[in-house]
Structures are given as structure tokens and as C-alpha cells.
């Protein structure tokens, strides 16, 4: 895939103001001492794609479910603000939020053949948001559904509208999910691992479709993924998460070319299948650390090769760094970044 973010992406004033602004999002689960999300903050501007990146368990999907009010009952959420188009979502009643969710604010889920109802026809499921949010019913509803199915690349949409999800391939089912997510004309689409479990060729088709739709509709997209190839193909900015915390964020081209945080560096090395001096594939030691397992210090320090190689381990264990501004509009949460920026500001060689 070509790196979309390496191209010129100056898209004028429509991406200046955030359509989604999340501040200090924290999620606790009953029975766990530590939060699964800890003060997560980021923006998504109009017309741009922001990728939430990290390993399984990093908090990406919990972030999406928090925004959409789809957390399980055992989860307790708090935030300074979760604003959509200037409106704090936390202050909306359940009825008001239901009118927003699936309409102006929509979500594309992973595992479409699990999410789609096998007992309901495709046309009914795609048409539900049109009926609920736009009041479109009857023949006009069906006409628009057929148009949506054709728009997302489903062949013979007039016939497919009467199919069931179990009659579709994984790629076709994901296209149906996309048609349903787009049907009521959203302004922000949250796409949770939209290419998971799909063949590589189908993944590429779905990504191209997503990019085409967001350009055509001037959509803002919050893309949740662990796949850096997906990120390089479509995202404008990256927010890297580890163990419930944001550890780096910035323009995609800068983060992928010159990652500041050791975890981001490791993700890139793993995605490129790099080998060490002994010819072994690079991998991080130990398993992924969940937010619930750490109380103090940098959450990445048990696995961090930089901390262990350069004598930062004691401080990394005892004190967590803040998310600091670096160069090229980036931020990173790492003591090596703090020290490097301090050296630069003092005029010392970095």
C-alpha cells in the first residue's frame, strides 16, 4: 500500500476544528483496582482520519465503545469532556443520544457476520437507520438501500437486498455493514478493526472503499486498528495507545518515519518483520501489559529495550512521564523524549 499520509494532505479549513474532542477519558471495570483507560485525550477534526493504534488490550475498542455508550454494565466511565460538534455527549439523555447514535455519529464494527442478524434480510438491516433517523420508509427506503448497496460495491444490489447475511462472504458482509453505518448520513464514523479476519485482497478493497466514502461524504473517521499497513494507507494522524494510555500522537508520516516512543518504534519493527543480529524476528519481551496490572511508573518499562539499555529503568519504574510536545507537531510519553527536548532547549547536543 502507498503511504497516503506521505502525500500532500493540505485539506483547508474543514479539518481545523475538531468534530470529536475527548478529554481525560477514564474507564474502570468493577472488581479491578486500576482503570482500563486512564485519562485518554485526543481530537478528530472534520474530514480527517485519525487512527487509534496498539496491541490487543491497549484500550482502543474500549475507547470507541465509551464514545458510543456501548460499554457493558460492569464498566464505569468518566471524562472531563466528550464533545461531538461542540456538544458534550455526557450531558445528553439516553433518548437524545439514541437519536445521535447511528445517525450523525455512526460505528462500523468488526466481525460483520457476527454483528449482522442472520434472521433479518440485508435490506431491512441497512434500512433501519434510514427509517429511525430520517423517517424514510416503504419504497423510498428500499430504493435508497439498493443505492447504498451499489455504492459500497455489492454486485446486483436489487437482488442482494433480499439476501440474508449467512449467504454473503466476509467481504460482502463488511460492505453491508458499511452501507448500514453510512445510511443515515453520519458526520463521524468510528471504524473498529474493519479489515480483521478478511483476506489481504479484500482488506485492500475495504480500505479503498472506506477512503472513497469519507472523501465523497467529507467524513471524519476514527479508525481503530493494530495494523500499521492500514494506518499508512489511509490515516492523517496516529494516536498510539499502550495499556490504557496514549503514549504518542502526531501526523502519520512523521510518526511512521521517525517514531519518538520506544513502543511505537517496536510496533514498526514488528510490522516490518525486522530481524536481530542472530537472524531472529524482532519481538517485544513478555506479553502485552494491561492497565490493570500497573499502578506507578511508565507502563511500557517492563518491555522497553531503550529503558533497559540506557539506564532509565529506575526512573521509568518509579515515575510516569507526561505526554510532551516534541517536533513536527507530535507528542510522546517517554523520559528519553523529555531529556532530549530538555537538552535541545538548553543548547546541548540532542
From TrEMBL:
GO cellular component: plasma membrane
UniProt main location, coarse: membrane
PROSITE patterns named in the record: ABC_TRANSPORTER_1 (PS00211), ABC_TRANSPORTER_2 (PS50893)
Any one Pfam family match given in the protein's UniProt record, by short name: ABC_tran
CDD domains linked to this entry: ABC_NikE_OppD_transporters (cd03257)
Location(s) in or outside the cell: Cell inner membrane
Residues in ABC transporter domain copies: 22-268
Keywords in alphabetical order: ATP-binding, Cell membrane, Membrane, Nucleotide-binding, Plasmid, Transport
Family: Belongs to the ABC transporter superfamily.
Protein name: ABC transporter ATP-binding protein
Source species: Rhizobium sp. ZPR3
Taxonomic placement: Bacteria, Pseudomonadati, Pseudomonadota, Alphaproteobacteria, Hyphomicrobiales
Amino acid at each position: 500500500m502507498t503511504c497516503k499520509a506521505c502525500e500532500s494532505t493540505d485539506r483547508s479549513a474543514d479539518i481545523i476544528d475538531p468534530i470529536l474532542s475527548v478529554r481525560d477519558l477514564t474507564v474502570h471495570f468493577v472488581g479491578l483496582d486500576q482503570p482500563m483507560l486512564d485519562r485518554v485525550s485526543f481530537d478528530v477534526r472534520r474530514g480527517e482520519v485519525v487512527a487509534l493504534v496498539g496491541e490487543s488490550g491497549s484500550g482502543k475498542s474500549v475507547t470507541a465503545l465509551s464514545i458510543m455508550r456501548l460499554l457493558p454494565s460492569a464498566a464505569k466511565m468518566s471524562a472531563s469532556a466528550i464533545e461531538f460538534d461542540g456538544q458534550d455527549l455526557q450531558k445528553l439523555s439516553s433518548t437524545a443520544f439514541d437519536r445521535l447514535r447511528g445517525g450523525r455519529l455512526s460505528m462500523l464494527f468488526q466481525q460483520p457476520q457476527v454483528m449482522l442478524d442472520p434472521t433479518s434480510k440485508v435490506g431491512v438491516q441497512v434500512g433501519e437507520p434510514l427509517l429511525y433517523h430520517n423517517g424514510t420508509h416503504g419504497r423510498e427506503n428500499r430504493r435508497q438501500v439498493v443505492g447504498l448497496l451499489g455504492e459500497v460495491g455489492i454486485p446486483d444490489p436489487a437482488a442482494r437486498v433480499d439476501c440474508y447475511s449467512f449467504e454473503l462472504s466476509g467481504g460482502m458482509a463488511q460492505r453491508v455493514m458499511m452501507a448500514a453505518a453510512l445510511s443515515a448520513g453520519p458526520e463521524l464514523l468510528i471504524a473498529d478493526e474493519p479489515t480483521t479476519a478478511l483476506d489481504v485482497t479484500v482488506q485492500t478493497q475495504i480500505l479503498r472503499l472506506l477512503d472513497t466514502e469519507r472523501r465523497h461524504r467529507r467524513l471524519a473517521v476514527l479508525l481503530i486498528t493494530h495494523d500499521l499497513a492500514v494506518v499508512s494507507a489511509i490515516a492523517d494522524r496516529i494516536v498510539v495507545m499502550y495499556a490504557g494510555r496514549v503514549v504518542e500522537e502526531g501526523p502519520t508520516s512523521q510518526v511512521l518515519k521517525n517514531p519518538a516512543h520506544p513502543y511505537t518504534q517496536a510496533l514498526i519493527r514488528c510490522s516490518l518483520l525486522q530481524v536481530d543480529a542472530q537472524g531472529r524476528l524482532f519481538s517485544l519481551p513478555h506479553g502485552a501489559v494491561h492497565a490493570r496490572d500497573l499502578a506507578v511508573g511508565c507502563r511500557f518499562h517492563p518491555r522497553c529495550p531503550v529503558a533497559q539499555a540506557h539506564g532509565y529503568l529506575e526512573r521509568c519504574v518509579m515515575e510516569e512521564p507526561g505526554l510532551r510536545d516534541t517536533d513536527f507537531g507530535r507528542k510522546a510519553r517517554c523520559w528519553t523524549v523529555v531529556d532530549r527536548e530538555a537538552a535541545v532547549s538548553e543548547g546541548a547536543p540532542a
